[in-house]
Amino acid sequence: MSDTNSWSSKNAVYRILDANLDRAREGLRIIEEWCRFGLNTSQMTLECKQMRQELAAWHSWELRQARDTPGDTGTELSHPQEEERTDIESLLQANLCRTEEALRVLEEYSKLYNPKMGMACKQLRYRVYTLESHLLAYQRHKQLQGALLYLVTSPSEHLFEVVEAALQGGLSLVQYRDKGADDATRFDRAQKLCQLCHHYGALFIVNDRVDLAIAVDADGVHLGQQDVPIAFARDALGSQRLIGRSTTNRDEMERAIAEGADYIGVGPVYETPTKAGKPAAGLDYVRQAATRASIPWFAIGGIDPQNVRDVLAVGAERIAVVRGIMEAEQPTLVTQYFLSQLSKKQQGSHLPGSSVSHV
Question: What does the note accompanying the cofactor annotation read (predicted)?
Answer without folding.
Answer: Binds 1 Mg(2+) ion per subunit.
